Amino acid sequence: MNATCGLCGEQLEHGHLCHRHTLALAGRLEQLPALFAELAEHLVPRRTSMGEIVATKAAAGPRSPVNEDVIDLRQGGVVLIVESWRADVQRVRWPRHSPPPVEGGMDRRLMTACRWLGMELEWIAAHYPAAGDLAREVRELEGGMLAIVGAPPPRRQRLGTCVAVTDDAGTVCGAELSRLPGEPVRCRWCGTEYQTEQDLLLLWHYQPRESA
């Protein structure tokens, strides 16, 4: 039975989240704990000096010397939302299990919930009806934190290994392929470029598979 991606509406053969947005969700779940930790450095607005904070505390006034958006996000806004998604996924997948335990500080709790969701992402994309809502809310959380801390430097994307044949004996290059977002896919060892959609499909098809 045909289905659609819960985030973009793309037609799917089955499941609830397309491959593109499943990969994006995986990246966001991996990045969220680091963004959350960085929020703490933005608790005090950059233009406010320590002397100004002391003066503001001493004098009555309506303006807070701290970033209240950061307080809202750090004091449960992010963590509670991600934990609620973890609990709901577990409820749907294992309805007889008790809710997951909540342990540690906010940073640890967020990392635990994100890792758990990341490990279950294949099942979520295929079987969890609310996968699109989960992806949408995680994207919004990331956007809210990036608006405060700024976008991190782009990281190289690992794409697998080069499958180009390099000699008449059929030797496969095998070097690791990576690129910065937006860059062309080019092997830095043998120089092979993967330019067309067909090239990329063949690259994906001939990736080594782990033995069962």
Describe the structure in your own words.
The chain is mostly helical and about 210 residues long. It has helices at about 20-40, 50-60, 70-95, 105-120, 120-125, 130-150, 195-205; strands at about 5, 10, 155-160, 175-180, 185, 195. Strand 5 and strand 6 (about 195) form a beta hairpin. The longest helix has 26 residues, at about 70-95. The chain starts with a strand and ends in a 7-residue tail after the last helix.
Topology:
Elements: E1 3-4, E2 11-12, H1 19-39, H2 50-58, H3 68-93, H4 106-119, H5 121-127, H6 131-149, E3 157-161, E4 176-179, E5 185-186, E6 193-194, H7 197-205
Antiparallel strand pairs: 1-2, 3-4, 5-6
Helix pairs in contact: 1-4, 1-6, 3-4, 3-6
Mean pLDDT: 82
- How many strands, what sense, and barrel or not for the largest sheet? 2 strands, antiparallel
Given helix and strand content, the structural type is mainly alpha
Termini separation comes to: 28 Å
Q: Which runs of at least 5 residues are low in confidence (pLDDT < 50)?
A: 48-64
**What is the number of helical segments per DSSP (H or I, 4+ residues)?**
7
- Bin the helical content: 40-55%
What is the CA-based Rg, rounded?
22 Å
% residues in beta strands: 5-15%
Tell me the total number of β-strands: 6
Overall geometry comes to: globular
Q: Strand order across the biggest sheet?
A: 1-2
Chain oligomer state:
single chain
Order of SSEs: EEHHHHHHEEEEH
